[in-house]
Amino acid sequence: MKLHKKLMLVYFVTILLPIIGLTQYFLNQMSDLIIRYVSDSYQKILTQSSSGIYYNIRFYESILDNLTVSETVQDVLTHPDVYREKGVYIMNREISRSVRFIQAHQATDVESIEFYSASPDMISDGVYLFPFDRLQRVLGMTEIPDSKFWRLEYSKDKYFYALVRPIHSIGEFQKIGYIKLTVQIPSITYVQEIADNPSIPGGSFIIADSTGRVMFHPDENMLDRQLPEEITNRTSERLSSESELSMDIHGTAYVMWYRKLQNVDWTAYLLVPKDSIQLKVKEMRQTIITAAFICSVIFSLMTLLVTRRLTRGIRRLHAKVSRAGRGVLFTDRRTTAKGDEITGLERSFDNMLDNLRELIHENYVEKLERREMEFNFLQTQINPHFLYNTLDAIKNEIDMDEKQKAIRMVVSLADLFRISVSKGSNMIRFNEEFYHAKCYLQIHEIRFGTKYTVEWDIDPRLPHLYTLKIILQPLLENAIQHGLKDVRDGKIVVKGKHANEESVIITVQDNGVGMTKEQAAALLQNSSSPKGIGLFNVNSRIRMYFGNEYGLSVQSERGKGTEIMLKLPIKESGEHE
């Protein structure tokens, strides 16, 4: 695992996980606070709504209070005979003057204002003044209470609120009649708190009287019906609820708050489904979780950027060490003179790579020079002794007046050394290498006579390929001097063929005395042995030039002869790669 990922893991374990745990604890605590806050909010709405409704009720009650003590109303109801003499028109005009300010001020809400006289002699004007029995018929009551009261009234396919109260004479304090004020429902129940919270999402604001009759409901179809028993049973004991009440109504779980209104036998109820409250809690939790998640992501990205920046030097150093492990020793210097400890370590590592690269270069050049010296030394070990012996042989032939033999030896020797020199190149074609070997055999034949035969079996594709020079002659020399020594009818077979697409095989086989496996193995390992110096030099040259996968191998059996196999790479040009 990379270092910056480890740092991120440490951050996650030591910081992020505790934050998540604290967030979860905070959410649990917040849930209780949210529920308490929602409960307090609904109670506040209920209290403010109740106060607003009470204010509206008191407003209309005060209107009726003023009308009951109006001089005109008192005169009309106290002395009906006087106004009967004046006529209906006069009565209507007098009362109209008394209620005009009300109708002008509340023109959209006041449906009607009616006066009912307790005197049987009262004449109705059909607008304001009516006999008492008509009130009984309108209200459907035979006994009218002597105190003011509100009731729900259905008229003209619509529900209204009706406020009824008795009128007493000021002088004698006797009941002289009743007044009924009919107003539209919104004029009483409309309050700002409910208007700002339409329907209280999923809930209902309800008003009912002491008998459980619904006086207000958002759904007009529910007006003038009875409240569910679950509500009336739970609210009959106390005037108001100090906390929410949980209940099931028709299979739905609700939370309810209620409050009895002042100076009227009404009770206001606020019912909210539990699911809507839980939804508010869920929304709040979701908001908090989303904010916490966004903050965590931002903080994690910032931590990632900081850790990557802090570990940038380590990652560069790791990349350089990895490249150095693969053998790539170049330096990519991006560090400045100033920096932290990692930057200093990176500079030191770059300096080390520079020194190592220079040292490798020096060692490589030194090794090449040493190999060149060894190669030249090995090549000089092959040529001198043969040259000296051949020159002595030419001198002897001249002394013995064998001019033709001397000339043939000189020509073969010249060709042999022309190929050996080959303009300073170490690579020659195989046909030149074969000719070089044949020149050597011809010189040896002139000097010592023919005691053996040589057969050549060469693949016709080989002569045009390239090889190291002077690698075949030492093998033939070793076969003649050591393998066929003291052997009559000696035979040497030289074969050349392609081993595969990458290499060729040259074998030199004789039917000489042979040797043991130990002696054969020692030929390629010891350059001090007089029998193996030529083979050791050839094998060393080939391996130095082409690699350890090429070179000589010796197979021999005492009394049966020896076979030396030479493995070389296929080279189609004289340039060494």
TrEMBL record:
Q: Give the bilayer topology.
A: Multi-pass membrane protein
Q: Which SMART domains match?
A: HAMP, HATPase_c
Give EC number(s), comma-separated.
2.7.13.3
> Record keywords: NAD included?
no
The UniProt transmembrane annotation reads 7-27, 288-307
Task: Describe the location of the Histidine kinase domain by residue ranges.
Answer: 468-572
State the InterPro entries in the record.
Bact_2-comp_sensor_kinase, HAMP_dom, HATPase_C_sf, HATPase_dom, His_kinase_dom, Sig_transdc_His_kin-like_C, Sig_transdc_His_kin_internal
Enzyme type, top EC level: transferase
Give the UniProt keywords, A-Z.
ATP-binding, Cell membrane, Kinase, Membrane, Nucleotide-binding, Phosphoprotein, Transferase, Transmembrane, Transmembrane helix, Two-component regulatory system
Question: Which reactions appear under catalytic activity for this entry?
Answer: ATP + protein L-histidine = ADP + protein N-phospho-L-histidine
Localization annotation: Cell membrane
Entry annotated with the keyword Transferase: yes
**Every HAMP domain range:** 308-361
Its Gene Ontology molecular function terms? ATP binding; phosphorelay sensor kinase activity
Task: Provide GO CC annotations from the record.
Answer: plasma membrane
Q: Which PANTHER family match?
A: SENSOR HISTIDINE KINASE YPDA
Q: Report the protein name in the record.
A: histidine kinase
